[in-house]
DNA sequence: CAGATGAGCCTTACGTCGTAAGGCAAATCG
DNA sequence: CGATTTGCCTTACGACGTAAGGCTCATCTG
């Protein structure tokens, strides 16, 4: 560690940076006021001079990832200037996804927050602009935002995602059930080899992510054209 | 309350039923070992004779909702016997949705569980059977399951859902931001009237749910037919 | 019938968490 | 120079989940 006068003074930014590092390394469960303070070389109550409390800390983490996502997505769209709406949105969402892969805790945190982080509006504005530019009415664009759901933020939010070691147990258990569940058994047998690349959660691979994205894009394109001829 | 010999003896089922009632009424945060025990007229530690702990209690709740969903969905599909795969899946998912509307805490609980509830396999088997019957290969059916995500369980899993009172504050805040976010402002203005029926979370209305469902169904139908002619 | 067995519930206690209240020392300002 | 503010610490409280063990019965055994 670098020599320091007395001690680097605490600050909201320094606390958030350390918190992010802690959570990246050890997961959300490790993020405790006392633990974060310890990592900062300070006592727990000192954090309250820079953060309004635990909830405020989580809000700060969320704010930070959203800023990271927005920056990455805006950059991606800038790089693709001139492309059609599909490829621009695609690049946006895939850029967001790379941020999520850096912060595996982010999906759960984002979807557990009781309040909407203000920064999210700016992000959605960019998506909306792309959609409107692509010829979508606000009505369909609105529905598109809902349809994208968490895909817009770069993660598929699989409902169930057993982690690492438990996968084996789950598979064994599934093998037992397979005879009572013929279709599931057959599907797993047919797709087993494809079980590579589990990036974010169970089977939430890049491939599935992009497949769903294209499904939605295709559908939206049709909805747009249909409403154009109808009305 | 009915007269009872001494006291109704505790049991796993009785504990789970009381826990469900408690959570339905006061939300997940109210579900505490001590509180649940109190509702059962018992001390906290007594629960441990029937449940392996807090996690086991949550597992039990999950097991219960999944059973409820499976029953509702199977019933719905039985009622629609003879229909095509789209309407049968639709009815399945909408039946699951009515269960979710009864238990607003279920989406968050389901997606926060660290392990896959075994009961879910039986539910997916039913969906798979419908897809296969509809002419889908296991490959596309697999992707379809991923694409449905939480829709299959009856909820859209909106990323952000401010509750009741906070909506007003959020709208006010959004009005302030609107000038910096022209598209968002315009969209909200255009869609404001449509902000009825917030059933599960923010804007996760029945309409949005079904719109997304049809988007995916359309896309899947194309994917199926395309792969049939290709290969 | 007496005594042993064990199920069902309770009491007490520990370690963890978030955080309220207030103290003390160094930096800043009049 | 003394007064005030700032930044951090100490202590303490009331939640939480749960480990360990005690008490009170119904039931079974001989």
Computed structural class of chain A:
mainly alpha
- CATH class category name of the largest domain in chain A: Mainly Alpha
| Estimated share of beta-strand residues of chain A | under 5%
Kindly state the number of beta strands of chain A: 0
Please indicate the count of domains of chain A.
Answer: 2
Instruction: Give the helix level of chain A as a range of percent.
Output: 55-70%
Q: Profile the largest sheet of chain A.
A: none
Q: Span between N and C termini of chain A?
A: 67 Å
Q: What's the overall average pLDDT of chain A, rounded?
A: 86
CATH superfamily of the largest domain in chain A: Tetracycline Repressor, domain 2
One letter per element, helices H and strands E, the order of chain A comes to HHHHHHHHHH
Shape verdict of chain A:
flat
The low-confidence runs of chain A, each spanning 5 or more residues with pLDDT under 50, are: 1-6
InterPro entries (chains A, B): Homeodomain-like_sf, HTH-type_TetR-like_transc_reg, HTH_TetR, Repressor_TetR_C, Tet_transcr_reg_TetR-rel_C_sf
Protein name (chains A, B): TetR family transcriptional regulator
Domain HTH tetR-type (chains A, B): 9-69
Organism (chains A, B): Micromonospora lutea
């Amino acid at each position: 560690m670098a020599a320091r006068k007395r001690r680097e003074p605490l600050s909201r930014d320094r606390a958030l940076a350390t918190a992010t590092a802690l959570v990246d390394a050890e997961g959300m469960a490790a993020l405790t006021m006392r633990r974060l303070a310890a990592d900062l070389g300070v006592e727990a109550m000192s954090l309250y001079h820079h953060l309004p409390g635990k909830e405020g800390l989580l809000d700060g983490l969320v704010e930070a990832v959203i800023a990271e996502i927005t920056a990455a997505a805006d950059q991606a769209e800038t790089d693709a200037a001139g492309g059609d709406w599909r490829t621009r949105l695609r690049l946006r969402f895939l850029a967001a996804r790379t941020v999520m892969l850096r912060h595996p805790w982010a999906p759960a945190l984002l979807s557990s927050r009781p309040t909407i982080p203000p920064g999210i509006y700016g992000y959605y504005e960019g998506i909306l602009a792309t959609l409107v530019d692509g010829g979508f009415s606000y009505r369909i664009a609105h529905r598109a935002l809902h349809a994208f759901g968490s895909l817009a933020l770069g993660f598929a939010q699989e409902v169930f995602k057993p982690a690492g070691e438990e996968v084996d147990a789950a598979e064994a258990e599934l093998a037992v059930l397979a005879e009572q569940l013929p279709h599931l058994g057959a599907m797993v047998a047919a797709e087993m080899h494809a079980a590579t690349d589990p990036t974010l959660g169970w089977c939430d691979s890049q491939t599935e992510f992009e497949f769903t994205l294209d499904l939605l894009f295709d559908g939206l394109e049709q909805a747009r054209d249909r409403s154009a001829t109808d009305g």
